[in-house]
């Protein structure tokens, strides 16, 4: 009887998988090219056919492409790309700014995903040369997920995009409902530190600040807008409950010494976070890159705040 | 170093007397033009072979000879490498000619468009133009040289005014004013960058120099002002020679020095503005190339000005090739290369020249 049950189970599973995959395949060719999309430089870009050779000129774009299962179409990434591991096998195009145009042209891309804040001049030149450039520069979590759907549409897999983004949204919703139940008086005051002597911290209108609020924290630099050079006195005055130190390319440092360095800053000894040793080291890529891993970052923050 | 002593070195040298003679300069200028054009062509062809993508010289030759082939290599050669080399040539000609002319009219070996604040003024003008482009939404790329020119003239005006305020002797006052204005305008560019949300961040290159986005379009905009401007300066060679003997001597020889200054300043600003509006500030070329040229061919401006234009062009082609080749695919700002090659070379030539 047991084996029979097993067969039945396997049978249903196979049927389900076949049905599901055929469902996906039938949707694969659903996009009617040419497709016109508006990118973040405010230009309408016409995509004539499904892109097969994509260059990602920023790590967040690479992460989006891999999350959507389009990793095998990426033919070039920047020196800064480090996630997922497969990017190590992909040809490097050099720095994010300035872009090496010759290298990009030589890779014969049919789609280039850029990040205009560093690359405006090169984007203009690449368009002059007849390349398809789609600028992806989201500023909020919602924007980021929208751009993911857009990239999925451009690459001919709109349904897959909806499913993947839907999954991410669901995870965001879970955190949101959990946070909604927490009384506002219990929300910890958060300070985002750094490994440099001069600390740049995210104020309002930054992705990091948005994630802190979503995860149920109160960013002490909220009164400012954008990334600001924070005054150490202000940190002492605001008395944060938790200090988070992002570490990575922008904040290099010896992990073991970071907590000690932060604790020993002059005038900070009375800060609750330091007295209670509530200093947490996180991977900056989860918070700086507008890509799918922002949701990982959000969950990480919630975990730090309430567990 | 004092300009008078500096020029004395040349006047004591037999070369100058020979150069000042009217018999040999025509022959000399022909040789300079021949060697210069040959040098530029040779360097260009050589540097065309270097790049992050390796293309066989044979392939490059065939792409150059039949322009029809539509391939990636064709695109790289005709749309990326050649415009970049031509931009380097124009920038080299402009910076070193204007540098030489400024040194001549101010009779100061430290004068150069960068130090006089002209480059910074031009860059600030271009930055304002770009900011306006984003605010207004109009496409202003063709007018960028105009904005640069206004910026350059404005900075020169300020420098001139400030040197009149300071009671120091004419040319050194100008230089001090220039240094101050350079700092002020660089600071203003930084502030402009801080205010703009994102548009100008990619324009940080104004402060370091960059040829990577050179295009035929941009070349077509600046080629006439640069070349015509340089010819205008070449035609002031004799006046500059007279001025080299001293302010009073020049007046006795019938040179209207104040008019000459205004003429050279405006022409120079126009040339520098055209180049800077598309390449950003490239330092050191305008300062050292004229000195090296003076050591090589002597101080006669009729020969020295064209020679320094050619040498500047060759120097910048080489620097840009290094900038894009040393740690490819990463590019180094060209300003860093010009300074780190130029300075030691200059010191070496200076030492050798004085022995």
Q: Care to give the gist of this entry?
A:
The complex is a heterodimer of chains A (307) and B (355). Chain A is of the alpha/beta class and 307 residues long. In chain A, 45% of the residues lie in helices and 14% in strands.
Question: Could you characterize the architecture of this molecule?
Answer:
The complex is a heterodimer of chains A (307) and B (355). Chain A folds into 2 domains: 35-165, Nitrogenase molybdenum iron protein domain (Rossmann fold, 3-Layer(aba) Sandwich); 182-306, 3-Layer(aba) Sandwich (Rossmann fold). Chain A has 12 helices and 12 strands. Chain A has helices spanning 2-28, 59-67, 101-106, 116-128, 141-154, 158-180, 207-214, 232-238, 255-263, 272-275, 285-288, 294-306, and strands at residues 35-38, 44-47, 54-56, 74-76, 111-114, 133-135, 189-192, 200-202, 218-219, 227-229, 242-247, 279-283. In chain A, strands 4-3-5-6 form a 4-stranded parallel sheet, with helices on both faces. In chain A, strands 9-7-11-12 form a 4-stranded parallel sheet, with helices on both faces. In chain A, strand 3 (54-56), helix 2 and strand 4 form a beta-alpha-beta unit. In chain A, helix 5 runs antiparallel to helix 6 (158-180). Chain A is globular and about 60 Å long. Chain A starts with a helix and ends with a helix. With 355 residues, chain B is mostly helical. Chain B has a single domain (82-351), classed as ABC transporter involved in vitamin B12 uptake, BtuC (Orthogonal Bundle). Chain B is globular, with a radius of gyration of 20 Å. The mean pLDDT of chain B is 81. The chains are: A alpha/beta (307), B mainly alpha (355). Chain A binds chain B through residues 79, 92-95, 97-103, 105-106, 108, 116-122, 124-125, 128-129, 137, and chain B through 51-53, 72, 75-76, 79-81, 198-199, 201-203, 205, 210, 212-213, 215, 217, 324, 328-331.
